[in-house]
């Protein structure tokens, strides 16, 4: 793929690593300027971000100031010297941003999840060659991510980067979005000249977790960070839990250990490190999955108590063992090991169900104020 390295995106572009910061959303002209000014004082990024059109999960939330925010960002560009970036989700956004002089566009996770949207955006980008950053789709589908990158590249865009912002979990996890680090690693393996940044803010979902994710990303040699920064996070109109104050952002950047920020050396991840990172990521996912499995066991306990069903049904358990062991064998897992593991899960599940039933019974008998699941 014809991709221009980050350090050639603009003249004198500081990108070692590339730091992008700014609020989740532009809210007012004063807010946009205040954050830019505090960033300039604390830890000036190369690029200032702000969303103007906000894709919100539920209707009725603040969905951005729209077109009128464009001129606030142009003020940031002129008064503070930052490049500015905005999320574009439709041809109308692309046209407005091009006309206003926005330097860099990004395509958000929700748009990337929908090839029709990406096609429309790519069509509007045809022949303009503005830099475009493409976030990962909501679901951990690397081909969908690569598909979006290819669609944008085919439109003639040569300044392309990917942004890893984590993947929507079905169950609540420690992070708002699961990192699944193995996916961006694989992306870099498949498109070796593609710069990959990390957005630790959307991954974390909580300001106190942003630091650790930013460091983890740097340990994986990402080429930059996009971080949400707001001068008054609790009163932010979107993503108020995850935004850092400019002060906290400066602390994070100063503490960041940047091991080998080499934009032109995609192969610089050490093999052993890379394998260990994949193991770490998968182990955490296993723990998350076990936690989800056990929560369902609690619900089973609840159901069985209310419907007067015994905890253990032997036939069901034999069926579980048989089908899982067969599947494990198919996937090359030693069957003795699989059997041991399944028995452990089952024992723990039975223990939890019994505990839930005991508490419900105690409650029904009016003895004590035990609650289920405490
Ligand atoms: C954002 O960056 O504000 C945003 C909406 O991100 P994402 O598309 O990753 O959810
Ligand atoms: Mn946001």
CATH topology of the largest domain: TIM Barrel
Strand order of the largest sheet: 1-2-3-4-5-6-7-8
The radius of gyration over CA amounts to 24 Å
Question: How many domains is the backbone divided into?
Answer: 2
DSSP strand count: 8
Q: Please indicate the percent range of residues in DSSP E strands (runs of 2 or more).
A: 5-15%
Ligand list:
phosphoenolpyruvate, manganese (II) ion
Q: Write down the secondary-structure element order.
A: EHEHEHEHHEHEHEHHEHHHH
Percent of residues in helical segments?
Answer: 40-55%
Compute the number of helices: 13
Provide the descriptors you would attach to this structure in a database record.
374 residues; alpha/beta; TIM Barrel; Chorismate Mutase Domain, subunit A; eight-stranded parallel barrel; 13 helices; 9% strand; binds phosphoenolpyruvate; binds manganese (II) ion
List the helices and strands and how they pair.
Layout: E1 18-22, H1 29-42, E2 47-49, H2 70-80, E3 83-87, H3 91-100, E4 104-107, H4 109-112, H5 115-125, E5 132-135, H6 142-154, E6 160-164, H7 182-190, E7 196-198, H8 200-204, H9 207-219, E8 224-228, H10 246-255, H11 271-306, H12 314-330, H13 335-364
Parallel strand pairs: 1-2, 1-8, 2-3, 3-4, 4-5, 5-6, 6-7, 7-8
Helix pairs in contact: 1-2, 1-10, 3-5, 5-6, 11-13, 12-13
This protein binds phosphoenolpyruvate and manganese (II) ion.
């Amino acid at each position: 793929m014809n991709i221009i390295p980050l350090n050639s995106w603009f003249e004198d572009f500081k990108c070692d690593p590339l730091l992008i910061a700014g609020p989740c959303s532009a809210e007012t002209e004063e807010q946009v300027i205040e954050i830019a000014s505090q960033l300039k004082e604390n830890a000036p990024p190369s690029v200032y971000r702000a969303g103007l059109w906000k894709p919100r999960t539920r209707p009725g939330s603040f969905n951005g100031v729209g077109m009128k925010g464009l001129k606030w960002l142009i003020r940031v560009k002129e008064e503070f010297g930052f490049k500015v970036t905005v999320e574009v989700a439709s041809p109308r956004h692309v046209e407005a941003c091009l006309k206003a002089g926005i330097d860099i566009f990004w395509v958000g996770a929700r748009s990337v999840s929908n090839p029709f949207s990406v096609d429309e955006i790519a069509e509007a980008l045809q022949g303009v060659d503005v830099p475009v950053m493409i976030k990962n789709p909501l679901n951990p589908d690397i081909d969908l991510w690569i598909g979006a990158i290819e669609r944008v590249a085919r439109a003639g865009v040569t300044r392309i980067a990917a942004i890893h912002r984590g993947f929507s979990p079905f169950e609540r996890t420690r992070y708002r979005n699961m990192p699944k680090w193995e996916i961006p690693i694989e992306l870099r393996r498949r498109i070796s000249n593609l710069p990959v940044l990390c957005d630790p803010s959307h991954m974390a979902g909580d300001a106190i977790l942003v630091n650790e994710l930013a460091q983890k990303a740097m340990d994986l040699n990402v080429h930059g960070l996009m971080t949400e920064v707001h001068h008054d996070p609790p009163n932010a109109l979107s993503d108020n839990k995850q935004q850092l104050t400019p002060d906290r952002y400066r602390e994070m950047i100063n503490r960041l250990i940047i091991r080998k920020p080499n934009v032109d050396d995609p192969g610089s991840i050490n093999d052993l490190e890379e394998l260990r990172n994949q193991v770490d990521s998968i182990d955490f996912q296993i723990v998350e999955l076990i936690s989800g499995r056990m929560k369902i066991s609690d619900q089973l306990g609840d159901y069985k108590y209310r419907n007067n069903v015994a905890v253990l049904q032997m036939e069901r358990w034999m069926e579980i063992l048989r089908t899982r062991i067969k599947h494990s064998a198919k996937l090359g897992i030693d069957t003795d090991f699989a059997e041991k593991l399944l028995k452990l899960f089952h024992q723990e599940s039975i223990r939890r169900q019994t505990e839930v039933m005991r508490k419900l019974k105690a409650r029904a008998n009016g003895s004590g104020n035990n609650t289920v699941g405490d």
